[in-house]
Each structure stands twice: as C-alpha cells, then as structure tokens.
Amino acid sequence: MTTSRRQFLQCFTAGATGAAWIAGGESRLRANPLRLPIGLQLWAVREELEKNYDATLRKIAAIGYREIEFFELPTPVAAYRKKFEDAGLSCVSGHFELDSFKSQQTIDAVKELGLRYMIVVFPTLRNPKDANLVHMKFDDLVPLYEKISLDDYKWNAEQLNKYGAVLRKNGLQLGYHNHAVDFKRFGDTVALDLLIQSTDPSLVVFELDCGHVVHAGYDPIAYLKKYPTRIQLLHLKDLKPGFVVTTSLAAENMGTNAEIGDGVIQWEQLFKAAKQAAVKHYFVEHEGKMNHPPLEAITYSYKFLHSLE
C-alpha cells in the first residue's frame, strides 16, 4: 500500500504526529524507507546552525531525523561529538575535498568524531593553479569545471583508489558524491561510470545524489540497478517540474530544488530499486531556495519519507 500525495498533504497540513496517522479512514503505522533511519545533510540547515548550533540539532532530532552528515568538519571534534550525542543524532558521514586525505590529522579527527564514511564531494582538477578549490568562490569554480577532462577523471579514479586504501587501514570507508558535472560525456564514456568502473569496490563506494542525477538527464533508479553493490549512500534531493537538463555546475544555484515528494522523482519506485541494492544510509539534502523556510522544509521532506512503506 502506498500513500497518495493528497493523503500525505492532508496529513501534513493537519500536523499529524505520533506513531500512527489516519489516511482514508485507515490507521497505519509509519515506517521509514528501507527500514533505515532518515538522515539529514546539514547543508540544508546551515543558516540555522550559524544562529544556534545546539538548538538546531535538537530541532532536527525532534522532527525525527536520527543520522546526520556534515558538509564541513566541525572542530573541536570532541565537543561536537558530544553535541551530536546529546541531541540524539549519529554523525555517520562527512564531505571532504580530495586533498583532505593527505592529512593524518584530519583522518584522526574523523575517527574521534565517530564517522564511518569520508565522502569526496567534488572531482579535483589536476592543474596546479586550480588546486586550491576549497577556498574558491562558487562562481569562480563554475568555468573551471566546464573544462574538466577525461584525463582529470582518470586521475581522480587513481586518487580515490590510493586514498581508499589509506582510509581502510584507518577503519574508515572512502566514498564519492556525484554532481551533475559527473555526467559529462567523453565520446561513449560517462564520467561517473568511469569512476565507478575504474575504482576498487573494496576501497571506494558511492553516494548517489538523486537530484543531481536527474538534473543531468539520467535516471537514479537505473544507476541503482546497474551498480547495486557500489552505491551505499543516497542523497535524497528532488527537483521542481520544468527544470532545465544540464551537466553545468552553475545549475546548482538555479533554485530548482523541491521538498521531497513535491518534485519529479518517483520515490516509491526509487526505494524499490534501493531495496535490492546495498544502500545503508540516506540523507535529505536541500540546496537553494525551497518552498518553505529550512526547518519547515526538512520537516516536510521527513514526513513524506516517513509516510512511505
């Protein structure tokens, strides 16, 4: 049995809470997709975190989220691990630039924080003058990534294998998070497929950003079916109808995101495919302007996901 969008919206508008809710006169227990805790990528509430970090964590947990993924390593890590634990949140993953893996100090901090995954958030350009990407403004990054080459991606695959081995020795798992740019084609080769096929499955896993896949004109369900054992994490991101298909990095600032369930992705079908794959964690991520303020938006997305069987 699935929940119609109308039933869900009626429930959401009424502010239904608790272990069960009424839809069409029938009481049913809520269940998370894949029977896994619903996670949140903290980028979605970065402005609220800047205002009051501890209070925002408590609000995230009160909504029902149980796992989180950070977009920037918080320090001092011991203090932040306590913040997460006090709020009832488990921080299982974080996003990093490729250069971060050169630092044993960073890896040790990640271990102290209790993470399981270190996720590479962007492909790295090999040109030395472009190496310091982490400190560049987004608008300055866009033209650089328009020039990314097949050789760049081959080099990235080599680096992922190298640092994947380093992380494994440290009891951690390296992952790669895709953007729309990772669906650039070089002849018959799609960049993301090259990364998946050129990396060691024992060293590198993938975090499939469903919204970026769709934005680039591809099907996340097809990728879950094609690489069921390689994709261990998902970013749950939806897109508003009428978005422009593109692999440009600039698309990420176009305000095309929708709250989960209000966009174009058929989540019931996606989770059916994910159930047959090796997905272990998933995180709601909102980018750009949403239809609701951040805390309301993540509540909306949570309730939709929590209504699915």
> What is the tally of beta strands?
14
Determine the fraction of residues in helical runs and give it as a percent range.
Answer: 25-40%
How would you classify the helix and strand content by structural class?
alpha/beta
Q: Can you tell me the residue ranges where pLDDT is under 50 for at least 5 consecutive residues?
A: 1-29
Kindly, what is the distance between the CA atoms of the first and last residues, rounded to a whole number of angstroms? Answer: 7 Å
Report the radius of gyration as a whole number of Å.
19 Å
How many helices does DSSP assign?
12
Strand order in the sheet with the most strands? 3-4-5-6-7-10-11-14
CATH architecture: Alpha-Beta Barrel
CATH class: Alpha Beta
CATH topology: TIM Barrel
Q: Kindly report the average pLDDT value.
A: 88
The biggest sheet amounts to: 8 strands, parallel, barrel
Order of helices and strands: HEEEHHEHEHEHHEEEHEHHEEEHEH
Q: How would you characterize the overall build of this protein?
A:
The protein has 309 residues and is α/β, with parallel strands linked by helices. It has a single domain, classed as Alpha-Beta Barrel (TIM Barrel), CATH 3.20.20. An 8-stranded parallel barrel has the order 3-4-5-6-7-10-11-14, surrounded by 4 helices. It has a two-stranded antiparallel ribbon with strand order 1-2. It is globular. It starts with a helix and ends with a helix. The N terminus is likely disordered.
